[in-house]
Amino acid sequence: MSKKNVNRAITVRFSASDYNRIVHDAEQKNGSVAEHIRAIISANDEQLSLDQRLVDLERRITNKTFSIVCAVANLSEHEREMVKMRLNGGK
To answer: Is 43 inside any structural domain?
Structure first.
């Protein structure tokens, strides 16, 4: 992130152990504490995005598998809906 995009400050209090770990990690990467915290936030955002993508992928795989199983079992639309309701806890 370029410095021209940085225009707001936030003050945060950390426990001594967290502070020491953050400073140590920043020093290991030859960067400033602020840069390191920005990188941590960015990595967290990327992880949340990845987690959501995995949830979406799991949902698509489950739906495809359900469709395949229903086709193999030769279920009618009504039977499919009944099975889907049972799998969703009767909802």
So the answer is: yes
